[in-house]
Structure formats: structure tokens, C-alpha cells
Write the C-alpha cells for this entry.
Amino acid sequence: MLLEAKGIIKTFGSFRAVDEADLTLQEHELIGLIGPNGAGKSTFFNCLAGDALPDGGSIRFRDREITRMAPHDRARLGLARTFQVPIVFDGMTVRENVMVGAFLRRPHRHAAAAKADEVLAFTGLAEQADQPVTTLGTPGRKRLEIARALASEPTVLLLDEALAGLTSAEVETAIALVRRIHESGITLIVVEHIMEVIHRLTQRVIVFQQGRVLAEGSPADVTADPRVIEAYLGRRAGRHRP
Ligand SMILES: Nc1ncnc2c1ncn2[C@@H]1O[C@H](COP(=O)(O)OP(=O)(O)O)[C@@H](O)[C@H]1O
Ligand SMILES: [Mg+2]
């Protein structure tokens, strides 16, 4: 097992955003994490990556207990993530933004810049390398977020809505990029709203609802599961009932 989370709880006040959620991830998998807005997907990612400390449960990565380990120490072990809202360091170029990730394993500036350029070429951002990062639009920022994570040379990459806000043509480019990342040997968990993307990219899906794992299985199985349909459509269907 590459990554294993058991009974993860994360509370905000008296509210359980993540409520005893489990996850297992085998090396070289590419799995989906789906669920309605507010289901706790990003909070769960925060717990896995160390950006939030869970109030219960345990996380193991490559047979090491990492439940309370700092994010940069998890990154050093090979666990990287992107944020749903891309992080952009203003006043720096696109390359320098990616170097922030590269510095994790390459403390020398030249080596970090070389790694950044390699990743910028891989993610299709090479031509923007010297531009101020603020010139990037949404698709560029989404790719930059992925590039910065890749520059840390992860074993596992957690993508939080990396395709959100893209046009259908941009989504195609992004799907191709995720596939190439997977083919390069990186294990992925993708949070994604577009079911077609989940169907095309993943072999296994975990469905969250109200902080809990509601269902798990192949994309075809979970989307046919009445509980999953209810979780997505229940309230809206209710409103439209006469
Ligand atoms: N820092 C926080 N403080 C209070 N509530 C939060 C915080 N972060 C998330 N939440 C709440 O936790 C729930 C899960 O949020 P989130 O993990 O962002 O869901 P998802 O990513 O599945 O849309 C939501 O109800 C959200 O409002
Ligand atoms: Mg989210």
C-alpha cells in the first residue's frame, strides 16, 4: 500500500467536514475522488497533504505514519498536491513560481531552474517561462499549479479540481497532461466534477458525501449507484417535484 488513510475526522467547531473517511491507494493507480460541493474532498486532501491536522484517524505513506507530519516533510517523502484555487506568487516569473517546488530537492538555484524548465516544457508552459506570473489566465494558472507540484518530484500527486474553469478544448489538453503524468510513473488522486473526465481517466472512484465515503468502485458502477445519484440530484430533484 502506497497511501492509506483510516477513520479520518476533521472538525470545524462542532461540524465534521470529514467524518471517519478511509482511503487506500496502490502504487501506479489513478483514482477519482468525487462528491457534491461541500462533501469534504478538499478538507480530506488537506489532511492527506498535511495542510490540516485531522482530529482523528491515521495516515500512512509508504508504511510510515505521517498523520501529524508537516506538509514539507510529506512533500520530501514524495506526497505533493495542488490547490483548488491556484497559488500564485506575484512579482515573480512563471519559472520562479515553479522553482518554489523545485527547491525542495534542488537547493541550488541553477539546478532548481533547470528542473523548473523541464517541468514547464512537460506542462506546455515553456513559452511563458520568463513572463510575470500575473500574465497567466485560468488555464495557465491551473497548469502552473501542476507544474510546481511536479517540480517537487512526487511519487503521489493529489489534484484538487485541476480542470475546473477550463473550456472543453482546454479540458482535452489537461486530460492529456494528467495521462502523461500517470504514464511517467506518478500515482494520482484526482478530485474532479466532470463525470466524463472521471470515466476517461480513472479505473476506481471514491464518492464522498457529508465527509463520509458513500460509495467506491469503477466509474460505471458508482454512477449507476442509486445512492450516488441521490447524493448528486436528491435535493434538486426534490425541488422540482410538484
Ligand atoms: N476552514 C474551514 N472552516 C470552517 N468550515 C470549513 C473550512 N473548510 C471547509 N469548511 C467546510 O467543510 C465542508 C467541506 O468543505 P470542502 O472540503 O471544501 O468540500 P469540497 O472540497 O468537497 O467541496 C464545507 O461545508 C465547508 O464549508
Ligand atoms: Mg473542494
